[in-house]
Amino acid sequence: MEKINCLDLKEQHRSIKKELFEAFEKVYENTAFSGGPFVEEFEKAFATYTGTKYVIGVNNGTSSLHLAMLALGIGSGDEVIVPANTFIATAWGVSHAGATPVFVDCDKDHWEIDPAKIEAKITSKTKAIIGVHLYGMPFDIDAIKNICVKHKLFLVEDAAQAQGARYKGVTVGGFGEMACFSFYPGKNLGACGEAGALSTNNENYFKHLQSLRNHGCNVRYYHDEIGFNMRMGGLEGASLNVKLNYLEGWNNRRREIAKQYYNGIKNSKIKMQQQPAWADSVFHLFVVTCDEKDKFVKYLQDNNVNPAFHYPVPCHLQKAYSHLGYKQGDFPNSEYLAAHCMSLPMYAELSNEQVNYVIETINKF
Ligand SMILES: *Cc1c(COP(=O)(O)O)cnc(C)c1O
């Protein structure tokens, strides 16, 4: 068996190359390189897809989190609850706005933010909770919404890994004040370039976010507040228009592969992410843990299965946040996950033969 990587983007891009290049040509002919009609087309289509009223395209997912905080009026002196086990950009959004991320541990079985551990972290400075649909699986939205209502906090979804995932049958993106998406090339829906977006049902946020991403102006060269250049590029928008048509199919193929892993992997040394009844994941990543991680990783690599690691260091132990004073032992579940996790091959173009090979290899460990 040839080496099987955690992710391989080449096949997807080979299969739709003609369509993508035709779309790029249109952008070129219209010189619509920054924002413009192709980005607007995508915003409308993605709003329909997520079942939300408004989508605002931006230059990447990190910007979407940053702008979400600004649109909610969050800044210096404020605190925002963030899971300790997420990609660091969830916390960047809070820090870029001048506020402080306050980390919370995850559940030991489903690895999503643990609602039972949130209330102890709420202070008079807490303004919002950012829940992350980690690895493509929705967090327990109802439980967290209840906490938000009780303590008058904003709920923001970080849906960067979860385009198309469903919570109790409803597509993510409209559960909080707003949701943040990344279209980094490796995400389930990835642009040919860097891109991101916010979705919301609130017209005021929508208008404010449109202005913030565009130098703080609604009328050209009249600037109402200090803004940013965080517009989505036209080529990126055009690539997303093409790829959005394939997303359901790709997500369903990921669900199929995940099912094969869940049914096929029978090795008591390997633990998989538990899927609660509320969750219909899009399996951005298929993460497993193993007590003997180093040995298992070497065994996989020796057998041409190449895992990746999401993520080796939890946010609270990152050097960038050392000034916040967290220490090893603060969040045992996140720390265990970081030290023992690996991501198995997961992308829509994997063949059944490859999936079966991964399963058989794991079962022989
Ligand atoms: C990818 C990702 C982001 C950041 O998106 P970029 O487009 O890379 O800036 C934020 N949060 C999570 C959970 C992510 O996976």
CATH class of the largest domain: Alpha Beta
How would you classify the helix and strand content by structural class?
Answer: alpha/beta
| CATH fold annotation of the largest domain | Aspartate Aminotransferase, domain 2
Instruction: Count the beta strands.
Output: 17
Contiguous uncertain segments of 5+ residues? none
**Main beta-sheet annotation:** 7 strands, mixed
The largest beta-sheet arranges its strands as 2-10-9-6-5-3-4
Could you explain the architecture of this structure?
This protein is an alpha/beta fold and 365 residues long. It has two domains: 10-105 and 114-244, Aspartate Aminotransferase, domain 2 (3-Layer(aba) Sandwich), CATH 3.40.640.10; 247-363, Alpha-Beta Complex (Aspartate Aminotransferase, domain 1), CATH 3.90.1150.10. It has helices at 10-15, 17-30, 37-50, 61-71, 89-96, 141-151, 203-212, 234-264, 293-302, 332-340, 352-363; strands at residues 4-5, 54-58, 79-83, 100-104, 126-132, 154-158, 166-167, 170-171, 178-182, 196-200, 217-219, 222-223, 270-272, 279-280, 286-290, 305-306, 341-344. The strands form five sheets. It has a seven-stranded mixed β-sheet with strand order 2-10-9-6-5-3-4, with helices on both faces. A three-stranded antiparallel β-sheet has the order 8-7-14, with no helix packed on it. A three-stranded antiparallel β-sheet has the order 13-15-17. Strand 7 (166-167) and strand 8 form a beta hairpin. The mean pLDDT is 98. Bound molecules: pyridoxal-5'-phosphate. Pyridoxal-5'-phosphate (PLP) is lined by residues 60-62, 86-87, 89-90, 132, 158, 160-161, 182, 184, 196.
